[in-house]
Structure formats: C-alpha cells, structure tokens
Amino acid sequence: MIAHATGHEIAGTLVDAFSLAATSMSNRLYNYNKAHKHSKVYIDLNYTSTYLFHTF
To answer: Do 22 and 14 contact (CB within 8 A), yes or no?
Structure first.
C-alpha cells in the first residue's frame, strides 16, 4: 500500500516477487530437511537464483 501511495509500484512488485521466491525456497528446504532427518542438508544456490538441495 505504501509503495502504491508513493508511486513506487515497480519496487513494491519486485519486493513482493522476491518475498514469494524466498518463501517458496524456505518451504522446499524445510520439507527436504524433514525428509532427510538423519543427514546434513545443504543448498546449492547459484548466480542465476536457481537452487538445488543435497545431503552429505
């Protein structure tokens, strides 16, 4: 609402998109960690913002 009122709709939209992507990645990591309770889990995040989960 603040972004719209101040004329920063594009910035607000970018923040919303980043927030959705971060929430999605967090949820997927949480579920991957639950599925691999007895392993150490890490995330491979590269410069194109794609990510993969792996275990040790």
So the answer is: no
